[in-house]
Amino acid sequence: MYRHYWLAAIRILLLFGLAEAGFAGATPSAALSAEEIVERMEERIQQQMAALESYQDQRRYSIAHPLLGDGTYWIVQENFSAPDEKRFKVLERGGSGTVQKRVFARLLEVEQETAREEVRPQVDLSRDNYDFTYLGFDESANAYRFEATPSGENEYLLRGTIWVNAEDFAVQRIEGEPAQRHSMLVTRVRFIHEFAKFGEFWFPVHHRSVTKLHLFGTATLEINYSGYQWQERNQSGRGERAVANRIFTSEVNHGVPGGKQ
Description:
Blueprint: H1 2-13, H2 34-51, E1 52-65, E2 69-81, E3 85-94, H3 97-114, E4 130-138, E5 143-150, E6 158-165, E7 171-178, E8 186-198, E9 201-213, E10 217-233, E11 239-243
Antiparallel strand pairs: 1-2, 1-10, 2-3, 4-5, 5-6, 6-7, 7-8, 8-9, 9-10, 10-11
Helix pairs in contact: 1-3
C-alpha cells in the first residue's frame, strides 16, 4: 500500500520543486489577452530563478489514514542554494517508521533529484508542457483562472486549474490531479497547492493531497510551510538577506488579499 501511495504523492509534489515562487512585476496598464497572461506567468518563473540566491524554510509533513491514525509526521528544514542545490534536515519525527521511510524520505529524495536545472523544464508550468485555456477572472482571489492540460507524455505532469495573480502574474494556487494513472491500487488523487506572498516572492505555504486507494481507503498528505528566510541577488549580483515576519499555516487565506505579507 505504502509504495503505491508515495508514488502518487511524489508525482504531485515534484511539480512544485522549484517552480515555487513568482517574482513580483509591474501591474499591467491595459487589458491583456490570455496568451499574454500566460507569457508573463512564464517570465515570472524565470525571473524568480534568476533573482533568488538562496532560501530556507521549515515544513511539517503529516499523513492521516484509517490504519495509521494521524500521528505520523516529520518536521523538516529545507535550504536551497541557486541554481539547483536542495538540502534537507529532519528536525523532528513521529509515528510509523515505514511511512516515514517510504513516503517522507522518498519525497525529499525525489525533490532533490528533480530540482536539477536539466530536469526543471520538463515539469515547469509552461506552454512547452501544457495547453492553457482561460476560464475567467476570480475576483475573490484577484486572479486569472486557467485550465492546464498536458501537451506531452511526461509522467510527472498535472491536469487541473491554476490561479495566476492579476498584479504580478505569479501562480498562487493549483488544484488538480496527476495527468497519468500510475497504479491500479490508486483510484484517484486530488490535490491543492497554495502560495502566499513574502516581500517580492511567492512561496508555497500549504499542500493537501487526498489519495483514494483500492481496498485500503483514503490517505491524506498535508504539508505546511513556514519560517521563510531568503536571500535575493541585487544588481551587483550580491545577495541581500530578508526574513519573513509572519509564519503561514493552513489557516491563512493563501494567495488572496489578506493572505499577503
